[in-house]
Amino acid sequence: MNDTLRQPAEIACAAELTALAAHDERPRPPRWRLSPWAVVDYILGTRLPDGTEITAKYVGDRRLVEIAVATLATDRALLLLGVPGTAKSWLSEHLAAAISGDSTLLVQGTAGTAEELLRYGWNYARLIAEGPSEAALVPSPLLHAMRDGKIGRVEELTRIPSDVQDTLITMLSEKTLPIPELGSAVHAVRGFNVIATANSRDRGVNELSSALQRRFNVVVLPLPATLEDEVAIVQSRVASLVTALALPAEPPALEQIRRVVAVFRELRSGVTEDGKAKVKSPSGTLSTAEAISVVTSGLALASHFGDGVLKAADMASGMVGAIVKDPVQDPPVFREYLETVVKERDGWKDLYRACRDHLR
């Protein structure tokens, strides 16, 4: 039994990647494990001639995925931009897994990310004992990607301070990383590229310089277009999380997932799904990722402190926690929504009562 809580995409989906490679007869860019066409099939799902089912990793516009994959086949880096919960990191991971067979060359951007995490650092014990040497050098994940001809990933690029972001310019434009201390440079091997993600809600935090922006092709990932698309995403991700967490619960009823997603979509958009009533929006983003978290947390409650069947009472605390971010502004907004929308819907009285009780 594998005790890893979460396996990298290339391990978790190894059978699918192997099956796709066996049937892939299209041209592959240098060091790509699959052709661009097969990468798109891996991301969006397909059925192979031998009957192997390739599950969809991303639900959305095929053309957007094609543009992203085509970008990575050129010398331009890829920036996935969108609001929280639009599967930027998820898509980035699976693209790297399908192209390079390695999604772990990752730099997580934060306000404290230093230049060394993008370029290289030093083993200071060896540096003091031996002076600057190749053995004392500690390569960053991006430096590994350059040397091996793989995809490097940078998460939350706009969370990184602007002067540190610009470290990427030489890597992306010249495909070179100078190491002045050694009087040498690392030249990127064919197959190297970078996928970065950025949260559009973070605009104004650390804007990209115009020089860095020119090195990226930007693909904006939208929120799921329809209720059915979002329900399908939540259902798929919850199923995989339940398996990974070994929760002894029954699979959640589709109607329970549909209710959570409908509430989040309506509060997010400011209008009910049928378009007949306007509602106020709370301060939070109410993303698909948060809907997944609400359902998964509800299943944990149901499995460990209930009968294993997901009910409205199990989801209520998670819903209130996701919706009420501002303790002053958000409770009246959600309370009004409960009274005017949820209370009036057939079969939703249990959800109304459970959420109302948690708001008290």
Q: Can you walk through the features of this model?
A:
With 360 residues, the chain is α/β, with parallel strands linked by helices. The chain folds into two domains: 212 residues, P-loop containing nucleotide triphosphate hydrolases (Rossmann fold, 3-Layer(aba) Sandwich), CATH 3.40.50; 133 residues. Helices cover 47% and strands 12% of the residues. The chain has 17 helices and eleven strands. The strands form four sheets. The protein has a five-stranded parallel β-sheet. Helix 12 packs across helix 13. The model has no long low-confidence stretch (mean pLDDT 92).
What does the secondary structure layout of this molecule look like, with pairings?
Layout: H1 9-12, H2 14-23, H3 36-44, E1 46-47, E2 53-54, H4 62-72, E3 77-82, H5 88-100, E4 106-108, H6 115-118, E5 120-122, H7 124-130, E6 137-139, H8 141-148, E7 151-155, H9 162-165, H10 168-173, E8 176-179, E9 184-187, E10 193-199, H11 210-213, E11 216-220, H12 227-245, H13 254-269, H14 288-305, H15 312-323, H16 330-342, H17 349-359
Parallel strand pairs: 3-10, 3-11, 4-7, 7-10
Antiparallel strand pairs: 1-2, 5-6, 8-9
